[in-house]
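Schema walkthrough. Field components (list of strings):
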Amino acid sequence: METVTEQEWADVERTLQDEGPYSVVPISYSIEYSEKMDILRTLMKNNEKSERALKLTEEIIAMSPSNYVIWKYRQEIVKELNVDLKSELDLFTNYAKENPKCYQLWHYRQLIIEKLNDPLNELKFIEEMLKGDDLKNYHAWSYREWIVKHFDLWKEEFEFSTSMVKYDDRNNAAWNYRFFILSESPYHDINEYLKDEIEFSKQKINFDPTNPSPWMYLRGIIEKSKYELAEFADELLPFCEFLQRNEFYKYALEFQLKVNESILKTLKSEKEQEQQKDICRSLCSKLEEYDKIRRKYWKFIRESY
Amino acid sequence: MSEIKVEQFPIKLEVEKHLKYLKELNNHQDELEYWLSEALRLNGIYWGVTATYILDHPEIYDSKEISKFILSCQNEDGGFGGCTDHDSHLLYTLSAIQVLAICDTLSEVNKDKVVKYVAKLQNPDGSFSGDEWGEVDTRFSYCALSCLKILHRLDAVDVPKAVEYVKKCMNFDGGFGSVESAESHSGQIFCCVGALAIVDRLDIVDADKLGWWLAERQLPNGGLNGRPEKLEDVCYSWWVLSSLSIIDRIHWINKEKLINFILSCQDTETGGFSDRQGDMVDVFHTLFGITGLSLLGYPNLAKVDPVYCMPVSTIERLNIKTRTYNQI
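Field assembly_structure (string):
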């Protein structure tokens, strides 16, 4: 990247940053960056929309992409100069890879895609971002949800969620995405998928009962469907018990508790209710013992029946 | 309620060192690249000023000079930029209003202009954009409502619509995300629960379910994480803890272990807190380490309000208390 030279910007006065009389919070960017910003402030004041202004914004973004001031200005220049939006998107793909957590870079992509009214290869790009950097990248997942909703691209996404969960079954973001597809997609009926999803969650739990995500998903997906947890008691309670034939698992105990609470709601006679409450209380006692750090939570729940 | 004593913990809160660190932020330039960019300037001032108030040593900074500088960041549109000559953004507008409120210099700002700026950012679905660039996020719902409440001008926006949008961002696990259907995240939960508390609509929250999700964030080392299967981080002691406090479930986590964790993230030589032990300190984590300890009832700290993340004394002076929050 070129640095700012005297010649290139000879005609532009510098608008220096007012640090305030008492510099409580100092600024520590390099001299190069600070000089570029001084020039930029002048360009913005003069509302200059030129090739050189476009180039300067890119140089500043390359140094500090989260400087929000640049982005709106760049967008205005891009519009004025009629810059090809696809090349603009390509240009920022590399910056996105270097700064995967930068809010502005993601938002800028979304604006461009919205304007082009074409999802292009964004789904592929997001997948690469997830796999190349952080499988849980919050921005990437939210952006994917937006793309899918905005362009009605639901159909392949259930399979995508399967592949991402298989890629890393401790990735809660992937589980959340699967839940999003089944609960929001107009092409997927959660009730039709329920049986398979229970099976899918059980497989993942069997593989590692200490993974919180499939437990959370299992409960969420049943509660979201037209059924109650209690209606699966005959299948899920023995599953939890078998799982714990050698040792207790906190999430299994919790799940048993949730199913038993659901059963409690169906009972009419006081005697039956009291027996059921005893089951719940004894599960809470076990949790107090096995999940010591949250002992007070489990005590609260035990005493709430 | 057992009282927390300094002697209970292997290390103590290094108040003097933190004050020195906050006072000498100017000399730490190389270490603070994470947050020290001019665009974040007003956030930085808010983090630093609030930290000194909670440490009960507000005299560390000259509040008149600070207020003067803050006021110089207000733009024609009524909002505040991250620094002078920067475009307005809700994130900095809230920081500006918070600092002026804490320094008791709110009377010097043109409030009507601020209110107009904030109100303009509400979208038809009730959400708020961060600035005219348009990014939507529940963080901005919090910023807008907190700002307006401090100015006693909630009437300027459509509160029921704002609530409706926050409600849409509630997930099956009881938590909240940045937008509809986005994964539950402790930081976003603070924003949503805080926003609902400000407008007195906590009835929307499933407190037991959310409280459980938040309590699940505590890891064996006592620290709290932001999402399942993520690492602990001092800033989450604030986001998680304040949310638990707002929904009256703060006693569900282990306070001694959390205090231990937060104290272990201090740099006992230079002062300041880092995200976790051994990392570089910064003023952001310093504030949230200190406010977390305050909420946990650590001795000799000023009380912090969990909804506004400002000193309780400020909230009382402003007369905007949502209610009294129990410390552990």
